[in-house]
Amino acid sequence: MKLLSHPLHVQTTLPLLIALSFSSFIYCEYFAITNKLLNTLMALSALYGLLHAPRISLPIVGFWIGLLWFYWIGYSFQYYDMAWAVWPVAFGFGLVYALYFGSLGLTSNPWVRGLILFGLTFFYPVDFNWMQPELIFIESYIGFEKWQFALTLAIIASTSWFSYWKRFVPFLFLPIVIQTTYTPPIRPPLKIMLVSTSISQDLKWQQDQQSSIINANFEAIMDAIDKHYDLVVLPESAFALYMNQSPELILNLQQLSNTIPILTGTLHEENGLHYNVSYLFDHGKITVAKKMILVPFGEYIPLPSFLKTWVNREIFGGGLDFVTAEKPTDFVIKGVKFRNAICYEATRKELYSEDTHYLIAMSNNGWFKPSIEPTLQNLLIRFYARKNHSIVFHSANSKGTSVIY
Predict the structure, then answer these.
(1) Is 322 helix (H, G, I), strand (E, B) or coil?
(2) Positions marked catalytic
């Protein structure tokens, strides 16, 4: 069927409205106007649109969703002297999700579309899992577990069996998937200071800024000591250097750790390999936690080796991919076990387990400032924390510092 044979609103207004409904919960959260009833109605409207809209609309819906969720990803390229790439990258993500949601347009049958959409919840383009369709229900009256999402899709698909006002009949079964309360685990018996910083990314790695950044970090640690905290957590790459190449800095942190345990993000070099890590200083002892899951296109290139080499050389100035740990690292601090998570890891299910109730996460969100990225990250961490009955203590640079559950 030709595109021009459809009314103009099918090509323009309708796709944008569906995409806005699908994305509104993020922007409501960003502007601190979250309302569960509104989120519920908008999410149901979005899913109804995805299952019932004309086939030709769906790639356009996906394009708008890609932009609304991920327009900010290209922001990081300005720090590689490629400011021109900011919007082409955003456009590229729009195209990726045009294909992602456009796959629903392979059929007009709402039931088959529902099956495809449910299947997409298990698929992450370019190994980037921040598109979670169930996430639209995170702050609503509808549950976001897989079975609840599947039943919700079935209820919406079944409206195709009815006509006119009778289409509301299947929604009478929504109470089956309603979830109004959540009880988080009990907080650990520790007083934890989560340090929030606001260092511009274009200054963070400049040598002439290192002294002032290090001094600010030590001031935060001393403040935690003065206020009798049990643990102080600094953000990802709070010390923007290779910690194991800075013996004097290590010695100073070891000495302070006799008074308070210190967990901080930094870099680590070992046998010519580079790691994004957390360092725990506790009573003079040092534990290095290496990141296990890297950010696609940020810390590694998910392409064949010959393309990866070209991208690293031509785009990232000869930089190398970071290397990963084989498993996550757990810390025991004053008798309480915490799992370490660095930025993107806190939004991956691999870091969560039944016996891990407390995670300490650290991020550097300065790459994407200003944007909704910290908000979307927080919602995703909340998503996994609630699924796994966990609490995440999150320290971040450029917004995002909070206790999440």
Answers:
(1) coil
(2) 236, 291, 343
